[in-house]
Amino acid sequence: MKERRLRERVLRFLQEHPKEAYNYKQIAKALKITKESQRALIRLILEDLASAQQIEEVRPGKFRAQRQFVEGIMDITLSGAGFLITDQFKEDIYIPPEYVHNALDGDEVRVKIVGYSRGRLVGEVHEILKRHRTVFVGTADLRSNYFLVYPQQKTIPPFIVPFENVLVDDKVKPGDKVVVELTRWKKRDANPTGKIIKILRHDNPHKLRNEIILIETGFPTEFPREALEEADQFPDEIPQEEYEKRVDLRHIPVFTIDPADARDFDDALSIQQLPDGNFEVGIHIADVSYYVKPGSALDKEARRRGTSVYLVDAVNPMLPERLSTHLCSLVPYQDRLAFSVIATITPNGDVLRWYPARTIIRSRKRFTYDEAQEILEKGEGPFFQELNWLNSLAKIWREERFKRGALNLESPELKFHLDIEGVPIGVYMYERKDSHFLIEEFMLLANRLVAQKMAKTRYRKQPYPFVFRVHDSPPEDKLKEFASFVKSLGYKFRITKPENLHKQFQKLLKQVEGKPEQYIIEQMAIRTMAKAEYSPKNIGHYGLKFKYYTHFTSPIRRYPDILVHRILWSAMNKAKPPYSYEKLAQLCKHATLQEIQSLDAERLSLKFMQAEFMKQNVGKIYDGLIISVIKRGIFVELSDLFIEGLIPRESLPEPYIADPENFKAKAGDLVFKVGDRIRVRVVDANDEEGTITLELAE
Question: How confident is the model at residue 119 (pLDDT cuts 50, 70, 90)?
Fold first, then answer.
């Protein structure tokens, strides 16, 4: 056995048994190694690992795993278990529910490594360094001299709120939805202590639900007075000095393409054919950084929020509406400040040259995606020639990306038909078409060009600190889980080197195209991927197959884009970097966390709306696809609706035995496997909890 392999086995053995100390003979016996030369090598390996402080020698000749402490961000699952997201390890560290203690989702914590199980490190929360949020929504229940507030999040125990900690003018009644602020929760405390700071009462149940979702995911629902006053101070008209400073592009036909319900337009396009047959393309982005200055009240609030949050029936903007839907938005027929990428591109899609510029533009037309798509399909309509040129270039780039190994993990998006009161009366799957891909490719181009430029920019011979959008290759443990999952459905997925994995994904996705299990395999493939994040350290973007990538194109709704605009402008002027590497690392970590929280909010909104829609369909029978099995029961996706519900174990034949690792469960004499098609009846839909309960129909 090679020394490297033996070293890994010895270290893993000690990590799997962290509480005990062993000598080399005991380890050799446990590893079933009998050769004297190998046993002697184990002794040397132990001494070497101890000197490298990877293990500790507790007494002469006796060694155990180093009790290592790791810092990171907690990601809590619905089951109450957690994962520590940390830069110190490539893979997340698993935290069993009993070891989470009083840590909450998003908290910055210190974790002690306590073992190794099923191919991953296991940890225990040792200390909470910083709470991600301290404000929660719950239901008030009156006691003799205090309130108990039961949080929306079931994994958090009730808050104890003494009467003197009720800081609202109105009387709190049992059953009220209230906002409670955490004031104390020591490790030894069974319950957190808090104070009630707001009662949530709305005539409109959808507004109440949306406010609860936003508070629960850590987003403020109101802007500070200082930020609103700052936004109101900007004049409606662009100051004359800006016309003199900027490149005036108002003579160039510019247009926007956005969703039908969009109110903030932060990107626009232009294209002109040059005499030599090449194209001059303009990718024009709202110049939010002109209005949002570093250190201002607007900047502090945008940084705190990190992103706009898009719920099913509402938007919680990152910036006040005066900026997001008026002054910054690239609305038609109005002069607007922009930060533009101007590129000369051949008909074959080669970028010959490009430059960034602060500009003034005037949009000539506002297209919805459907309107632009109709013009492309009919071959006539406003700006057809420009749309056709852009579409041709976008198709070339899209095809090249996938040839390079970019992953195509797109699936139709679930949308709702809402009545005038916002009640869902129908669902449909919205598929992206050429008009969407057109915009996507040009935004990818701008992001990539800016990242390339900044990656090569130096200040006093040092790299210019910058914000990259990075995406690592999939973690090995998730790949193994994915391979096991698709195997249970009768498919093969071979785990290879990261640079070759895309071929395996592409091969599998082609095999399942058009089959009932396509959607579930695509969703599992997405979950297998590492999370994309913001970082001053560039490692490239695995999913897009770009060596350099950033976010430059959506500054109205993403704070990192504002940072990128500031840094790019500073570099263009050969000025000192506006942020240090360390400061950017802090800002990137927060922005990444806020992005994750916004996705959680969007998922919750979708879940509640699905449950509200299914209230109208209680009693109906649907074809379904089993998508997961857990101890609580079987999750089934309703095939025509792409809505999922749970068959609780109580309604299944006894005994119910779940085998999640092998993606199957047994209930009485029945065997259920992930991927099986079954017929189910809708028993209940609870739009307050966002749950849908099913039962077997056959």
Answer: low
Amino acid residing at 672: F
Residue 390: name the closest of 261, 562, 543, 267 by CA.
267
Q: What burial class does residue 630 get, using C-beta atoms within 10 Å of its C-beta: 0-12 exposed, 13-18 middle, 19+ buried?
A: middle
Q: What are phi and psi of 696, to 5 degrees?
A: -65, 135
What is 135-201's CATH number, 2.160.10.10, 2.40.50.700, 2.40.70.10, 1.10.150.120? 2.40.50.700
What are the tokens at 274?
């040059």
| Domain over 3-65 is classified CATH 1.10.3720.10 | no
State yes or no: pLDDT of 302 exceeds 90.
Answer: yes
Model's pTM, two decimal places? 0.86
Mean residue pLDDT of the chain comes to: 91
3-state secondary structure of 569: helix
Task: Spell out the SS3 assignment of 617-665.
Answer: HCCCEEEEEEEEEECCEEEEEECCCCEEEEEEHHHCCCCEEEEHHHCEE
Kindly state the helix (H) or strand (E) to which residue 79 belongs, with its residue range.
Answer: none
CATH 1.10.10.10 residue ranges for the chain: 3-65
Mean pLDDT for 609-637 is 93
CA distances from 559 to 15, 35, 267, 496 (A): 41, 60, 15, 36
pLDDT digits 0-9 by tens, 45-70: 888 888 877 787 877 888 887 667 88
Q: What is the DSSP letter of 144?
A: S
In this model, does residue 121 exceed pLDDT 70?
yes
Q: DSSP of 427-442, one letter per residue?
A: EEEE---HHHHHHHHH
Pair type for strands 120-130 and 108-117: antiparallel
Q: CA 419, 411, 92: angle at the middle one, nearest 5?
A: 110
pLDDT tens digits, one per residue of 634-677: 999 998 888 999 999 999 999 999 988 888 899 999 999 988 89
The C-alpha R_g of the chain, in whole angstroms, comes to 28
Assess contact for 486 and 505: CB atoms under 8 A. no
pLDDT value at 21 more than 90: no
Q: Which CATH superfamily is domain 69-130 in?
A: Nucleic acid-binding proteins (2.40.50.140)
Q: What is 213-277 written as a DSSP string?
A: HHHHTT--SS--HHHHHHHHTS-SSPPHHHHHHSEE-TTS-EEEEE-TT-----EEEEEEE-TTS
CATH number assigned to the domain with residue range 618-696, chosen from the 4 options 1.10.10.10, 2.40.50.140, 3.40.140.10, 2.60.40.10? 2.40.50.140
